[in-house]
Amino acid sequence: MWPAPAKINLALHVTGRRDDGYHLIDSLAVFTRFGDRIGIAPADSDDFTVSGRYAADVPLDAGNLVVKARDALRQAAGIRNTPPVAIKLEKNLPVASGVGGGSSDAAAVLRGLAQTWQLDIDSAELARIGLALGADIPMCLAAKPLVARGIGDELSMVPDFSALGLVLVNPGKPVSTADVFAALTRRDNEPLPPLPRSIDFHSLRNWLEITRNDLEPAALAIQPAIGRALSWLDKAGSGFSRMSGSGATCFGLFETGNVAKRAAAEIRARQPDWFVAATRSMASEAD
């Protein structure tokens, strides 16, 4: 199985908008050990199936990013080199939830198919194919602590970034990314401040206090339940709470994984219908 981790925007500043309508961002993102999973196997004909908690919310037609990723890679590599495959998506992340689930699924498919088909294709070419499908896919292909600029395609890896204890909470309310961006009152905000020289729980928390998610006020106005999710994270002892991406998923930062697990259990007991997951982010690769 190929992991398709959740993408968490720890901070997200909207810094402009291009003439084609794409917004420019400056975002610090990490990727979690919890997420969707992709299975790929040779088959007599192409097949795509979905299981998992949120399977019912996933379209199975050609509009799905998983199918688009398969077809785009096949077009790039040639049909002779890309025989039929059965793709299985285990959908553990809620859809339209601000954690890049669909983009991460597509990235996992691109990585998995490149190996399954034994293609001579490098990471830059995979990112180029992915970018044509969605602005978040190149960063989901990287899946390490990074700063994303431009439309999300200009990536800088962040070294010496340790794993974080996180709790993810979604109140079960999908939020349209397009609606959130349309509701922005300002699109020319200043970029992120410089990252701390040494990143640990305390320095990161202090840095986050002087950053923002510029999408959060608009998303809160559209879906007030986001405020309740943030409140529950704070009550459970989060060191820092914020909405990820365009919502409605929120994250809480915790000093250890065990503390995060206890907090998640506490929130889950009070809100059994919500999506609640304790997880850890993936650290940057050692030099």
Could you walk me through the main structural features you see in this protein, from its secondary elements to its overall organization?
The mean pLDDT is about 95. This protein folds into two domains: about 1-155, Ribosomal Protein S5, domain 2; about 160-280, GHMP kinase, C-terminal domain (Alpha-Beta Plaits, 2-Layer Sandwich), CATH 3.30.70.890. The radius of gyration is 18 Å and the shape is globular. The protein is built from nine helices and ten strands. About 30% of the residues lie in helices and about 25% in strands. With about 290 residues, it is an alpha+beta fold. The strands form two sheets. Strands 1, 2, 3, 4, 5 and 6 form a six-stranded mixed beta sheet that branches. A four-stranded antiparallel beta sheet has the order 8-9-7-10, sandwiched between helices. It has helices at about 65-75, 100-115, 125-135, 135-140, 175-180, 200-210, 215-220, 225-235, 255-270; strands spanning about 1-15, 25-40, 45-50, 85-90, 145-150, 155, 165-170, 240-245, 250-255, 275-280. Helix 1 (about 65-75) packs parallel to helix 2 (about 100-115).
